[in-house]
Amino acid sequence: MPSQWKLYKNLQKSRTFDEKRTATIMEELADALIYCHGKKVIHRDVKPENLLLGLQGEPKIADFGWSVHAPSLRRKTMCGTLDYMPPEMTEGRMHNEKVDLWCIRVLCYELLVGNAPLQERFPKQDATVYRQGAQELISKLLKHNLSERLPLAQVSAHPWVRAHSRRVLFPSALQSVP
């Protein structure tokens, strides 16, 4: 597979993405995860290495190796990539599809800053790299209590995403997928 189709390779090459590209990826990824969660599939390892890019740069979720079809949407297995692992997993608690929200929060940060956050807070030097709107979105996904994390539909509707996204596919295109 050509490297231009791999999000991780693109990120390595440019080190960071601008707000337009990041917001577009966040919007399209949120819709893809809404679809997966609607089918009772939890990915549990959303990260740049597991995202491919379509012909127009749209993200495509790949590597479902840690994913699970969970009709109850409740699991206890610790899995995924440590930098992207939510607290409920590392603490051995039950988790549900909201683990993917934690993953996209880490992804958004990494796309804008160039590396995954080492802590649950924004390092001061990184806070100046991107605008307040992105920081607010990331903060709303950065909730220890998974029931308080911003729902995926609200990720797509977040003002920062709306202001910067240059979405290729329209949401109605997803409704026609069987």
Automatic annotation (TrEMBL):
Domain named Protein kinase: residues: 1-161
Record-level Gene Ontology MF annotations: ATP binding; protein serine/threonine kinase activity
Protein name as it appears in the record: non-specific serine/threonine protein kinase
Cellular compartment(s): Cytoplasm, Cytoskeleton, Spindle
PROSITE patterns attached to this UniProt entry: PROTEIN_KINASE_DOM, PROTEIN_KINASE_ST
Keyword Kinase applies: yes
Domain of life the protein comes from: Eukaryota
Glycyl lysine isopeptide (Lys-Gly) (interchain with G-Cter in SUMO2) crosslink location in chain: K47
Residues binding ATP: E49, N50, D63
Annotated catalysed reactions: L-threonyl-[protein] + ATP = O-phospho-L-threonyl-[protein] + ADP + H(+); L-seryl-[protein] + ATP = O-phospho-L-seryl-[protein] + ADP + H(+)
PANTHER family assigned to the protein according to its UniProt record, in alphabetical order: SERINE/THREONINE-PROTEIN KINASE IAL-RELATED
UniProt-listed GO biological process terms: cell division
EC top class named in words: transferase
Species per Swiss-Prot/TrEMBL record: Eschrichtius robustus
Keywords assigned by UniProt, alphabetized: ATP-binding, Cell cycle, Cell division, Kinase, Mitosis, Nucleotide-binding, Serine/threonine-protein kinase, Transferase
